[in-house]
Amino acid sequence: MDAIELKDKAEAWLRADPDPATVAELREVLVRGDAADLADRFAGDLEFGTAGLRGVMGAGPNRMNRAVVRRTTAGLARYLKATVPDVVRRGVVVGRDGRRLSAELAEDTARVLAAEGIPAHVFPSLVPTPLVAFATLHLNAAAGVMVTASHNPPEYNGFKVYWGNGAQIIPPHDKGIAAEISRVEPANQVRLLAVDEARARGLWHELPDSLGEEYLAAILRLRVHGRGSDSLRIVYTAMHGVGGVWMERALARAGFRHVHVVAEQHQPDGTFPTVRFPNPEEPGAMDLSLATAGRVNADLVLANDPDADRLAVMVRGEDGALRMLTGNEVGVLLGHYVLAQGARQAAGATPHVVTTIVSSTQLGDMARELGAAYDEVLTGFKWIANRSLERERAEGTRFVFGYEEALGYCVGTVTRDKDGVGAALVFADLAAWCEARGTTVAGYLEEIQRRFGLYVSAQRNFTFPGAQGAQVIARIMEGLRASPLSRVGSRTVRAVTDYKKGEKLPPSNVLAFELEGGGRVTARPSGTEPKIKYYFELKETPRPGEPVSAARARAEAQLQQFIDAFLALARERGQPEVTA
């Protein structure tokens, strides 16, 4: 795109942008003559795909802003009217988190829906993403929209869409909605109803507090042990997000008497003043939690991300020190707990557990031994939820647990998406059960590892921002395809699965290399960030009488050698020399 064409596109955008703030921002870019910035803003439309929309806030079609959200909502509304006959009766749930611009984007969403004749069921205050997923199901809405960018940095926001089944959208709906969006008129021509008029016409319904109470009651019923603890000391952080009040209520009603919040991160704040990247997995994000845990001598640390759909956990290890559990370890603990303890309490249908192709294979090993149905699906919770619904309809299975290693967990069917509040409550219940039987969470994990094997995993991410980043990531993936790996270090590659071919699952740009003797590395571009991600896993068997810590140290040393060998091969196939 040459400079003249780029300037013409910018001027056309300015004429159609209904938001004075982004108009002023783009005019300043034009005055500054920043060609690279302008080119990136107009490199294309922000793609409607995984979880709807997500991007950096700002002016232009490749950014999150009011113009983009108004057109997106109009496209969603028109697709719903074309495919859901009773959408004007059922309506759409609309919620928001505490990020900058979330209030304006949520109001625009509801007003556009109302102008299209679709009732908007609006949360009047900040809510966690799981509550929108719950409300979509509970109200039998045709869809749900949550304005959030989850765990992304403060400059991001997003528009997450649920279908009427409570799960995130999958094909063909994502493509159908995107096609409708492409046909929507310029943003300043998209109709909106004033809030008062929408209320008067029965097209704006504020959701009552009682809905939140019903959600809390539902997640409390997910507990297996169900007796809380008078002595377990828990630290909780909301990471400047919206989970705080909900976690406090849930833990108090479950009977946990010693819950300490990280005060500096407890209130919603879209600037995230204590963390650059509000993701519990990021270096430094848990420092304040650790400091609080040290002051109160905590047994357990629970952390949500800003929209409370993810959960991170720290527990006391064999040496008495707190350590962060990996997403896979949390998944294995919850999965085993629900299958081995919870399943005993429920007769009837076969329990069903689901994870993703980049998560640990250990859940499958446990499921097979414990008599549960098991599936692996593509990355993203939408695939977990929709697969559970498919098997329920076809086979009458009973979904009890699903997880992805990126700290996403769903226990039961209160929601059909990851739920960091519900999962945290069940994990606290697990910890209380361990305490009641005279052990710890770390001790319970060791029991599982001695029985099913010690699986160690790691992830390496490489970021390539801007319009050129997508091209770099594409070259890396094609390099791995063009020159397949036959060995990684001392290990022979026994099988390569290219999920782009769509042989077992829907086509996806993912490559998996399975190794002789156990082990796997999976490569894929992120669906929400400008990253390529590599996932590594190896299995080790603790020797009789050997401390699990010694087996873990041996396995992690082997894993590091494996990672180093793979990354060297990736660099030969186009991976630039950058820091993970």
Describe the structure.
Pfam families: PGM_PMM_I (PF02878), PGM_PMM_II (PF02879), PGM_PMM_III (PF02880), PGM_PMM_IV (PF00408). Residues 47-185, 228-314, 327-447 form the Alpha-D-phosphohexomutase alpha/beta/alpha domain. The protein has 580 residues and is of the alpha/beta class. The chain has four domains: 3-207, 3-Layer(aba) Sandwich (Alpha-D-Glucose-1,6-Bisphosphate, Chain A, domain 3), CATH 3.40.120.10; 231-323, Alpha-D-Glucose-1,6-Bisphosphate, Chain A, domain 3 (3-Layer(aba) Sandwich); 328-438, Alpha-D-Glucose-1,6-Bisphosphate, Chain A, domain 3; 453-573, TATA-Binding Protein, CATH 3.30.310.50. The chain is built from 19 helices and 21 strands. The protein has helices at residues 3-16, 20-32, 35-41, 66-83, 87-90, 102-115, 129-138, 173-182, 195-200, 209-220, 244-253, 287-296, 327-342, 362-369, 381-395, 420-436, 441-452, 467-482, 548-572, and strands spanning 53-56, 92-96, 120-122, 143-147, 156-163, 204-206, 229-237, 256-261, 300-304, 311-316, 322-324, 351-356, 373-377, 398-404, 408-411, 454-463, 487-488, 491-498, 511-515, 520-525, 531-540. The strands form four sheets. The chain has a six-stranded mixed beta sheet with strand order 1-5-4-2-3-6, with helices on both faces. The chain has a six-stranded antiparallel beta sheet with strand order 16-21-20-19-18-17. Helix 11 links the parallel strand 7 (229-237) and strand 8. The radius of gyration is 24 Å and the shape is globular. The mean pLDDT is 95.
